[in-house]
Amino acid sequence: xxxxxxxxxxxxxxxxxxxxxxxxxxxxxxxxxxxxxxxxxxxxxxxxxxxxxxxxxxxxxxxxxxxxxxxxxxxxxxxxxxxxxxxxxxxxxxxxxxxxxxxxxxxxxxxxxxxxxxxxxxxxxxxxxxxxxxxxxxxxxxxxxxxxxxxxxxxxxxx
Amino acid sequence: xxxxxxxxxxxxxxxxxxxxxxxxxxxxxxxxxxxxxxxxxxxxxxxxxxxxxxxxxxxxxxxxxxxxxxxxxxxxxxxxxxxxxxxxxxxxxxxxxxxxxxxxxxxxxxxxxxxxxxxxxxxxxxxxxxxxxxxxx
Lengths: 159, 137
Known about the structure:
The complex is a heterodimer of chains A (about 160) and B (about 140). By secondary structure, chain A is mostly helical. Chain A has one domain. Chain A is built from six helices and no strands. The longest helix of chain A has 19 residues, at about 1-20. With about 140 residues, chain B is mainly α. Chain B has one domain (about 20-135): Cytochrome c-like domain (Cytochrome Bc1 Complex, Chain D, domain 2). Helix content of chain B is about 55%, strand content about 5%. Chain B is built from six helices and two strands. In chain B, α2 packs antiparallel against α6. Chain B is globular. The interface of A and B includes residues 65, 138 and 139 of A.
C-alpha cells in the first residue's frame, strides 16, 4: 500500500513539475484567439501576442493599410476580437512575461519581434553568422524556417 | 449488373458532375457580372485571356509587390509564397476547388491586393476576368 502511495506521489510531483515548466519557448501554450490565427496567420505565422508590448500591437493594428509593404486592412468587425486578444495577451499585459520586456526602453515601440532585446539576445549567434540572409530563410521574420512548431507558438530548443 | 452496363451507368451519373466543374464559382462570377454591367453599359462578358494579361501585368505602385505574380507565381497551378515565406495554395480552381466560393474572402483579398499591387481598387470587370481565368486553368 505504501509503495502505491509512493509511486502515486512521485507521479503527481513529476506531472506538477512538468506543468510548472510551461513558459515562453515551451509547448502547451494557452488557446490563441481563432480570429487572430485566421486573419494574422494568413501570410505569416501568427506571431505570439506575448512577444510584443501592447503599444506595439496597437500601432501595427492602426496601420494595416501599410503593413510592412502591403495592404492588410480588416473590417472593424473582424478587427475587434483581434484587438481584444492582443491587448490582453501582450508582453506587458497581466498575462504577459516581464522577461520579454527586459531592456525595452519606455519611449521605444518595436514594430518587429526581431527588434526586441530578448530576441536579439537569444539569436545573437545567428545574427553574427548572418543566418537570416540565407535564401531558404528569407528573413528573420520567417520563424518557421528554423522553428518547426512556430505556427503553433512553439519556440523551445527542441521545437 | 454486367461490367459494360456498369461503366455506361457510371458515365451517365458522372456527366452532370463534370458539367458542374466551376459551378461553385458561378454565384460570385454572376455578382461581378451584374456589377460590371452597372459600371459599363458596353460590357459584353468576362474574358479568361484578359484575366491572364491582368494577372501577369507589372505595375509600379509598389516595389515590394509589383505584380500578382510576386506572391502567386507566374503559374497559378503552382503554390505561391508570401513575402514572409508562407505557402499560398494555387489560385487555379482545378488545383484548389474552393477558390472564389466565399464572397467575403474574395472581396477582402481583392481590396487589399489591388491596393498593394496596382495602387487602386480593381473594377468589377477586372475581378470577373481574373476569376474566369483562374477557373479556366
